[in-house]
Structure formats: structure tokens, C-alpha cells
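Handout, section 4.2: multi-component inputs.
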Amino acid sequence: MAEIKHHAYLFDATRCIDCRACMVACSVENNIPMDKTRIWVAGIGIKGEYPELERGTMVYHCMHCDHPDCMSACPVGAYTKAEDGPVTYNPDVCIGCRYCMNACPFGVPHFDYDKGIIDGAFIDKCTFCPQRIYNGEEPACVQTCPTDALEYGDREELIAKAHARIAAHPDRYIDHVYGEKENGGTSYLIISHIPFSELGLPTLPETPVNEVSEKVMEMTIPFALSWGAVLSGVAAGVHMYNKNKEEKEGEAKPEKKAEVEK
Amino acid sequence: MKLNITLPKFLRIGLFPAILIVLMAIAAVVALIRYTYGIGPISDLSNSYPWGFWISFDLFTGVAIGSGAFVMAAVVYIFELKEFKPLLRPSVLTGFLGYIMVVIALLVDLGHPERIWYMMIHWNHTSVLLEIGICVMSYLTVLAIEFAPVILENYPKLHNIAHLIHKFIMPFVILGVVLSTLHQSSLGSLLLIQPAKLHPLWWTPILPVMFFTSAISVGLSMIIFESSMSSRYFQRGLEIHLLEKLAKALPIALGVYLVLKFGELAVAGELGLLFTSGTMSVLFWAEILIGVIFPIVWFSFKTNRVNPNRLLTGAVVTLLGLILNRFNVSWFAVKHPDPLYYLPTFMSNVKYVPTLPEVAVSIGIFSAGIMAFGLLAKYFPVFEDEHPAAAHAGD
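Output:
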């Protein structure tokens, strides 16, 4: 396998046969209990009338965004984005606020709702199988996929591959590689024969959803300092004004008394 | 009213405090279950709905109704409108207890409550939630300092400290107002990261400005509400001449908010959504009519401002409307991932209806707040400068 600069997945919805072997492989590889999973299969089921049947399924797990919203949102910095792709979660600092779950437009991080404080309730999500990819192996889900619906490789190469495949079969695919630009780019790329929204994927702009909130956060400290200065100025001004007024009134009173005496 | 059972003297309490204690006990039991078995068994929260009633009610509403403290501190200390001083202490106390209630509720909601202090050492500077956490922690300290003289004045030996605080109060007041501005607005910023989930009637880049503007109105209404309620419960005079002035400011504050609300929609070209979004349009109009337009009209009439009952009614309606806004933004108008075919069990719960235990926790915490307010007001000079004559004149 060629050297990989930016780890990525490519998912081809036309190839997925909904066997869900990826889910099993992931759970076995990462030792995930049976009632939990880091990967799930979403889809539209079977649509249409025989013989015009249509079916679309999608293997859904962490998109490993280039500008992760979970990472932007996490107050304690439990998420890290590796330069070569994977977004990882560190349970040791997580406080369990679940803001990452709200922030993620894909609804990826999930939480241990059935754990008390002794067991510890944590967030769980796809790790990109670092134990495998950094040892020259494919992630477990990719390795197990019987139809090559899931592929793994360098992001640039996979994008080229996806476009080439769409170009070769324009009748079969929608002319779009989901994840190439969505949310500022993701490391999970999807091509499909049915609209992406029907696969459960949100329609997102090319700018990451955290853009506005990060801009607002950048303004916080300058705003706080200038607001503090303004308030101090107002307080000082009001105080001076009131003091002057009192002094004038104080001066005015004896004069009045003097007038009365006259 | 006394309980009819023969109890030792220290256990003889009124019916109202007794109910509060029962509600607190229920909440404590629910919290115990939550800490043992997790959040799932007692709530309807799920991976589709990670935030629910606790966040909308305890965090969003709790912080908003605590805004009376900074509004009053600014009025009395920064603008030196000393006549409002009698309203300052109860407002600061409401804020202080309100924020403690927020923190207690978060200790139930957080997956790792024992790690809440990690916010002090692990900083992710792009996180709005971090800003809120730091501001709330710092502001609680400021409120404690602002309120401390009330306790200290009761003990002659501690008068020196109270005097010292009085002398250097200004920096704390300004810090308090800055921190309040930051976190009141940041509660709005918290939703900025959800442009794909929050309905466009509410999502706007100026959400923080909206939240700050409406927080001022919540603060003013809250002061009217809490003064009216405590004057009834403690049978003390009502500072109606002061409350009348606050009520006069409400239409102005809400007017600014109204212009912002519709101005933003007009600029974004989303005015059409006001009529085409079904339930969302109804919710939007409900919060605008109840929480903004009604009070603007109501408080514009002097008869409604000088009559204690009408004043209280107006404040309650305003609060309900503005609280509906907080619920809309943090819950009702947030769209979570759709149910799809073959979703595993952990994603299956896509409807969220708060459970009874969830609500019980919030009610219990709220009861504790009312209890604490009552006890502090009973044993410490929370209502200072209260001269029977002045109070009478106010009537």
C-alpha cells in the first residue's frame, strides 16, 4: 500500500448489500458490547413497486471531519484531530456534558446512558482503528466488507477514485462526492445512486458548522475588556456628575439662607 | 398553617416549607438512582436527544431568571440610582441562589459530575460551553462577595469585613456585569454551532445579542415578580413606586428586542418562515406575542404599573413568554437526526418527552432554592432599608 498522508474512507452505496458485517467486525476489533455499536447502517429500506424496486443503505460512522465540530464544542478539549485524519476522543478529561453530541451535525458521538458514576458514563465513537492503520492494516470495517463498498486509503487518491467511478458510470451515480467539501471536508467520502438526504446525511454548506461560534469566541476577550472599560468609564462619569451636582446644591443652599436673612 | 401532628418543637413547620422538603427529598432519591444506574433509566434522554428538560429549564431558564442580579447591580452602583437600593439585595440573592441551582442541576445532568472542576484546568478556547462554565463559576464568586455583607452585618465581630467589601465593591460590580453580559449572551452562542439543527426562525449569527437583550427584560420582570411574591409571603411593604419605574423600562428593553428579532429575519430574508413553518411558526408567534408584544402594550399603561396585582400579572406573563423563547431555542426548535431504517437500538429513541423523575429533579432543586431564599430572608437583613412608613407610602 502506498504511503497515506491523510487517512480516509470511501463508501459506495451502490455496492452495499446491507450485510452489516462491518458492524460485527468493528465491535469485535474494538471490544464493543453487543447492545452498542460505533457503526450503524442507515437507509431507505425497499422502495417502489416490483419490478422497479430501489434500495439504498449507508454505513454510518464518524465522518472524521477536517474541522470537527465535536472538537470545537468540547469545553475540556477531549477531542483531538490528527493531522493525518483521525478524530479521537479522550475519556480521561470528558465531563459528560454531551455538547459534542449536539454540535455534531451527523449525530455521531453517543453516550453511556446506562452507566452510573461508579462505572463512568463516557462518549463513544469510531476511532479510525489507530491500532490497525498505524501498523499498515485497513480499519476492521473496511477489511471485512465483502463487496468493497467500504474502501480505505489516502484522501486525495480516494476523491480521484470516486470521481473516476462516477465519470465511468454517470447513469449509476449522482454526480457528487459527499464529504469532499461538506462541513469543510470530511475523511469519510460517500458516493451514491440515491439522494444523500435519503441516506440520512444532512445537507451542509462547505464551511464547517462551527465557523460562526468560533468567530464569536475569538471576539470574547477583546469584547470583555472593552465592555469592562466602558462600564468603568460610565460608572466614573456618573459618579463625578453626581458629586458635582451635590457640591453645587451644597453651595446653593447657604446662599439661599443668606438671602432669607436679608 | 401548622401540621396537626404532635411533633417536637424544632420539627413544627408550616405546610408550605413541609411541601418543599418533600419535593426536595423526592429529587434527592431520583438523583441517587441516577448516580447509581445512569441517566437513561430515569430520563427520556437519548443519543438523539442528548439535552432535554434539565438543560432547557435548569440551565437556560435558570441563568436567564438570575439576570435580575446584574441588572440591579448596574442600576444601583454603575448608574448610581440609589433609590433602587432596597431591591438590590433580594435580586442579588435570587441570582446567587439561581446560579447555585444551575450548578446543582448540572451535577445531575453531567455524565461525570465529579469532574465539573476540570473546566478550570482543561481549556478548549473555541468552546462556548467553556466560556459559560468559567463565567458562571467566576460570577458565583462575585455574587457571593456582593451578598456576603448581608450575612456579615449580622455578626458585630465581622462588621470590618463587611465594611471592607462595601469599600471595594465597584470592581466586583463591574466584573459581575461583564461576566453576566458574557454568559447571558453565550447561552445564545451555545446554539450557534447548530445551524443545521436549529430552525432558521431562531438560528442567527446574532443569537448572543438576542439572548443578552432578552435577559435584561427577564431580569426586570424577575425583580417585579420576586418583590411582589416576597411582599405577599412575608407580609412586608411593596416598593411599588420603584417597581413601577422598572416596569416602565420594560417596553423599551422589549422594543429593542422586538426590532432585533424581526430586523434579523428581514435581513436574512426569512420573514416568509413566519407563516410557513407550521408548528415552528406557532411557537415563534407564541413567544413573541406572550413575552414581547403583550408586555409592551400592558406596561405602557400606568394603571397596569401602579396596581400590584396587574403589575405581578404582567411580569408573570412576560417571564412565561421569554422562558418559552429559551425552551424553543434549546429544545422545541432543535431538529435531531431523523429516524432511519435499521437504526440500532441506541439511536431508536427519536421522540423526547421528559419523564416524571426528570421533572421531579428540577422541581426539587427549585424548591431548595425557594427554601433557601425564605430562610435567608427570615434570619438575615435581605430586605434592608425597609421602613414601615416608607412601605406604607408605597402602597
